[in-house]
Amino acid sequence: MTRIASRFAALKAEGKKAFVAYVMAGDPDYDTSMEIVRGLPEAGVDLIELGIPFTDPMADGPTIQLAGQRALEAGQTLEKTLQMAREFRAGDDETPIVLMGYYNPIFNRGVERFLAEAREAGVDGLIVVDLPPEEDEELCLPAQAAGIDFIRLATPTTDDARLPKVMQNTSGFVYYVSITGITGAAAAQSADVAPEVARIKAHTELPVVVGFGIRTAQAAQEIASVADGAVVGSAIVSLIGEGRRPAEVLAFVRELAAGAHRG
Amino acid sequence: MASDLFNSFMNGPDERGRFGQFGGRFVSETLMPLILELEAEYEKARTDPSFRAEMDHLWKHYVGRPSPLYFAERLSEHLGGAKIYLKRDELNHTGAHKINNVLGQILLARRMGKSRIIAETGAGQHGVATATVCARFGLKCVIYMGAHDVERQSPNVFRMRLLGAEVIPVTSGRGTLKDAMNDALRDWVTNVRDTFYCIGTVAGPHPYPAMVRDFQSIIGKEAKAQMLEAEGRLPDTVIAAIGGGSNAMGLFHPFLDDESVRIIGVEAGGKGVDEKMQHCASLTGGRPGVLHGNRTYLLQDDDGQILEGFSISAGLDYPGIGPEHAWLHETGRAEYVAITDSEALEAFQLCCEKEGIIPALEPSHALAHVMKIAPDLPKDHLICMNMCGRGDKDIFTVARHLDFDIDTGA
Prior knowledge:
The complex is a heterodimer of chains A (about 260) and B (about 400). With about 260 residues, chain A is α/β, with parallel strands linked by helices. Chain A contains 12 helices and 9 strands. In chain A, strand 1, helix 2 and strand 2 (about 45-50) form a beta-alpha-beta unit. Chain B has 16 helices and 14 strands. In chain B, the strands form 3 sheets. In chain B, strands 3-4-14-9-10-13 form a 6-stranded mixed sheet, sandwiched between helices. Chain B has a 4-stranded antiparallel sheet with strand order 1-2-12-11. A 4-stranded parallel sheet of chain B has the order 7-6-5-8, with helices on both faces. The interface between A and B is large, with 45 and 38 residues.
């Protein structure tokens, strides 16, 4: 069983919802970022999304874009992001790591080479925003052949006719984007999200986590209560952007995790 | 003319929106259903005679098409070789080829019932064209423009405002054309239900590269007929400047299967195509990558991060190029060269002096290459160059480079 499948199975056995945290790799610099990532499991994070910095993150809001710029200015590269995963994995063999970003840095490195390195570094899954099912041959199918999950985004514009296509080659879990918009934008209401999660679950056995627009422990709790878990990114990343120390960032993460786990 | 479908260069893209390995639909899931809807609606419109008729009417009475094919006699004489014809798309309403495409897309948006139009713009020509057609049809119009471009192209910002558009200066990233495109895509993701994204060049996810090309192909279709009328044969060389590549694709496409026609695209070489990367010559100085919904040649660093383009011409200042150009480059059907800022400036001045035409800096790049090749070509060699825009917008930039103080007149 993969780390992602084991983690969701364990949470289910405990009757707990998943808390997924996103941070940008290398933000604000490699060492600080590493310290934060290492602290995430202890703060209650069940699954880590590690952002791959990119100059042109067109599905992200200003918070994530600025984080990417900080990381790039501090010298972060895809190679160093893989190194972060490797270092994390050396001390934690259970918490799943999902790399999240855009296709170009991966394409530039070479899909085959990247997948081999990611697998070796202990990466469990990929979320690549600009690869819809229409482009599955690019990375999704090769990743799954290499034993790495390819986690798909489903959105409010993904209608019932299209859902089977979106679910077809999805593995690990499904990430439901709760709003039509960019990361860090307006929050979704759990009342609106619940029927959407049910709609997706009619098409898949995979766990469905919900993200975009969740900024507080309260919101994490409400959203988690109607799904298999909640994702928080921008709210955490903005604290890092304010220059807060890792301990402060992790304290906030702990609150969010507690919220999601109550859900 | 190749009639064999399999040997034609004119049948692209395939059903996945690919020209060879280039093109495609690299967008987020939120946009994907829209892209598919757009593709279906465009397909319907394309084959609907009433859509065609409406376009033709507006092209004739609103834009002023067909644009003349003009024999540049003094320029040809001066260079002493090939016979140079200029396709006068700078005479279009709004002063550039951009409106050919905008008109098509706005008519399509109306068919689709979209009430709000968004667009990105670099130099402001596409923004002005979009604002113009939106005013004509009473549609809400929002233009994203890099903060740096807002400053250096303020007359166009004012034009867009006069036309009723909202101009949003983009400060994200580095505040350039590619960032304006990012912000336009963000707007679209957020306002998917009522908004139509009017892309200004032959780039972006399928079907945009093919759709924009189709709308711009009027340039090449006219040029072909006009050249046959003037000279009784096809041109020997067609040549155009390339940023994203819409005016060039529009001129080139109807000639792709005419084997005797040499096709040359001219990229912006900025300060020179070398390791300093102070240029925007994606084909001559970049390599394949994925950005803004398509795979194409991009200016990028070793890590796959996108670099900023650099050119005297804001309209060429884009780190990518349309995927069909990338394919024509790889198949060798078209050749691509780079012209530096100073070569373009020289051509700009020569065109003013010899022909009484103030060209935009973009076609000045194409003209600079014409200046290079024409003298060595025989006198019966026919060149057709796309004069895709007029230079009124550029006089401030050129004045600065020629040390002329435009405020004091000295």
